[in-house]
Amino acid sequence: MNEYTPTTERVRRDYVVENLGSTTEPHTATDGEAEFDRWLAQHDAEVVKATEERIIALLEAKFDVTMKIATLLGHEEPEPTISLETAIALIKGDNK
After folding, report:
1. Dihedral angle sign, alpha carbons of residues 4, 10, 14, 17
2. Could you tell me which residues come within 8 angstroms of residue 36 by beta carbon, excluding any fewer than 6 positions away?
3. Model pTM?
């Protein structure tokens, strides 16, 4: 099995060449590059969002487990170093 992974530039070029002069959009190389770049930006945004959602779910689960353990041990609720809301905001980049 070939382990070759094409670069983004290679995939962009192949996309443009495949669609160059076709009867559907894009008609020019510049159009094709712009269309590919829009697709890539959308894809990257979807990956970032999915990653944020997974991290937030893990943080929430860890926070819940910490609180349950503290309760079972008869401790008062421990004060986290930062709040769950702050951690989520930091992950999302809302810490401006």
Report:
1. negative
2. 11, 12, 15, 16
3. 0.61
